Amino acid sequence: MSTLQLSLAIVGGLVLLAIIVHSAWTTRRNAPKQADPAAPDAPVEREPGERQEPGFVGGDELPGGVPEPALGSMPLPALERRPGLDALIDSIVPMSLEGLVSGDAALAALPPTRRAGSKPFAVEGRNEASGHWEMPVAGQRYRAFQAGVQLANRTGALNDIEYSEFVVKAQAFADAVNAAVDFPDMRDEVARARELDQFASDHDAQLAFVLRARGAAWSPGYIQQNAARLGFVPGTIPGRMALPAATPGMPAILALSFDTQAALAEDPAQSAIRDLTLSLDVAQVLRAEQPFQRLREISAELAGAMDGVVTDQNGQPLREEALDSIGMDLEKLYDTLDGRDLSAGSIQARRLFG
């Protein structure tokens, strides 16, 4: 081999090596970021079909937040204990009895379904011993009953057909327990339902922030690990996490969601996710939890930790001025809901906006 041939061979080898190194570097740079296995809260990648938490997605957006007190500075109120039926959001029909009726007889008389169309239907009895209204319980005795149907929810207002179905079910129960019942005029109740539904439609707020990757994509484990550090927990649906409320049994403060198919991939570690959604269902969460302030802070922390940018659902970056504006609108919304006895996070609000 001549000197020229040897030189060309060496140069060719170096070029090939450079190509291989560059290809490996590019592949590594573009590979989805992985969870740190050394971290104490590093998640194990889930197998397809494993359960995670259901979440909600953003709906109507307000034009934008105000700074609120520091987290933890506001005490959470105790949950109100009210009967399941409430004249504020239910059409309620009283049923009078000549004597006492057992809980067993009442349970046997209940209809097989607890809905009238798309609206919840319920029967309550006034317990002879406690005097409290409650769902019928075996072994107890009742001196009166009342039946009710919800006037509105996110499916819309109670309509004529649903009210008629309610009347049929309530009358059948009353006949079975030998109770006298007097129904209000259907037109009045449907009109009440439409007014309540209009109020709910005008004051329903579901916020959604999108976190988009600036550079390398993320793996499901990488997202889960970073979210877990901020208090999120996985639940029943792949690709969903939730920030639990301070009060047990209350809806999650925030939901985090990403591509379900990526979470269900045969090898989730190789799934490339370029965005996730953080969402807040305003009416479902107590005002004292400061959910919007937490949404702002958590989205900013995740953006910093994961090299992402916070945008709206149209991909426009969310600036501080816009967030302050959203917050001011939310404060007005909270005040309006409070004034209507439908405070965010209350039993009544969760039913109406559910």
Automatic annotation (TrEMBL):
Which keywords appear in this protein's UniProt record, sorted alphabetically? Cell cycle, Cell division
Q: Where is the composition biased (Low complexity)?
A: 32-42
Which segments constitute the ZipA C-terminal FtsZ-binding domain?
203-330
Keyword Secreted: yes or no? no
InterPro entries named in the record:
ZipA_FtsZ-bd_C, ZipA_FtsZ-bd_C_sf
Question: Which residue ranges have biased composition labelled Basic and acidic residues?
Answer: 43-53
Q: Which GO terms describe its biological process?
A: cell septum assembly
Q: Where is this region: Disordered?
A: 29-74
* This protein's name: Cell division protein FtsZ
